Amino acid sequence: MNQRFQSAEIRHVAEQYAENELYLAVCTIGSQLEAELEFGLCPEECFMETLELLSAIAVKGEDILPSIDDIWLRKFNEYRRFDRHVVEDEIRKAVAVVFGFVILATDSSCHRFYRYTLSRRLMETIAGHPFPDSSAILDRIFSVPLPDGWFDAFLVEEPEEAASSTIRKPKTPKKKNGGEKKSGSKPMTLKYFTHGNKGVLRKQGERIALVFEKWNKWGWTDSETTTDDIDALFEGEPRHCNITWKANSTILTILLQELLNQPYITKQKWQSPSSMVRGQFGLTPNFDQKRLADDDKFRIEVTTYLLDISNPLPQRDGGEDDDYDTTDAALQAVLSGQLRTTKGI
At 341, is the secondary structure helix, strand, or coil? Predict the structure, then answer.
């Protein structure tokens, strides 16, 4: 087995893409596939090969279709030059593995062309170059979980820059922070506010104010974030909200995932946690809940609880009906069913 990626390259990719969901998906079975391939395709090389093809797709869009066969042939010839002692079935298998992970990515798209037309065309190309146990290998790749909308979020990135990456020199993306926004199409926001009903809208505004207070206290947002910025995040209209997220991207990703699953948030077409984390906050999404501390899980639950205006708020001991106790301790007691609540706001 000919190892092309050296230790430094493997380490570089592993560190740079540690939170990339597609990289994590490749790593799920990548080492096992590498052990089975005579050609030798480590997870890091497999990921970069996949990313290279996905970048070409992002640049060309529907114009990629006539080039699929040529891409397969070029990749096959490239791999054969790497190691001429490997039989052609093994080289076809290696190319199919890369194409398989490309299909895994495009199949996450909400766009009909990528999810159906392109994925079907890629499968036809694989089928046109058969090798032993092809169905079993592809089934294992397609069984690896990848969040819905991952490829749509990938398309938000600058495709020209992504296309410049090679397997020998992985691209180093521009350094981003939560306050830095890309030009071009505006990112989506959460459709929460109910306009046309002043009573509901007032209650929703009061709950948003409570959530903003909590986020500031927990250190999730920076001091320059304003109430107008937070209100804009929940308006549902595409725009840059100018919110700098200070907590880690796992908290943000899981928070948005939970919010988009709430009945009081209207899910919009092609909206996903990944696309919002990337487009609205300029961060890399991460769905690994093992990285969430218990406090973070509690705070996400508090956020979703507070935004539901049908949920009562804790009443302060000995206080009037409109005297609320919204400390973390009181909310913890409510969520545990231990404290009396009042409808209030």
Answer: strand
Take residue 83 and report the two structure tokens written for it: 């190691």
Predicted pLDDT at 344: 43
Instruction: Please tell me the distance from the alpha carbon of residue 277 to that of residue 263, in angstroms, as a whole number.
Output: 21
Nearest by Cα to 113 from 124, 126, 122: 122
Q: Which of 79, 89, 72 is nearest to 132 (CA)?
A: 89
Which stretch of DSSP H or E encloses residue 313?
strand 313-314
Six-digit token string for 253: 């990703």
Can you list the alpha helix ranges (DSSP code H) found in 83-180? Answer: 88-106, 112, 119-127, 134-142, 150-156, 159-163
Token readout for 307 is 């935004």
Exposed, middle or buried: residue 235 (CB in 10 Å: 0-12, 13-18, 19+)? middle
Q: How many beta carbons lie within 10 A of that of residue 57, not counting itself?
A: 28
Q: What is the pLDDT of residues 109-139, one digit of tens each?
A: 989 899 889 999 999 999 999 988 888 888 8
The 3-state secondary structure of 167-229 reads CCCCCCCCCCCCCCCCCCCCCCCCECCCCCCHHHHHHHHHHHHHHHHHHHHHCCECCCCCHHH
Q: Which residues contact 337 (CB under 8 A, 6 or more apart)?
A: none
What burial class does residue 141 get, using C-beta atoms within 10 Å of its C-beta: 0-12 exposed, 13-18 middle, 19+ buried?
buried
Structure tokens at 66: 């006539």
Distance spanning both ends of the chain, measured CA to CA: 66
Which residue positions in the chain have pLDDT lower than 50? 1, 158-184, 339-345
Give yes or no for a contact between 13 and 170, defined as CB atoms under 8 angstroms apart.
yes
The token pair at 122 is 């890629």
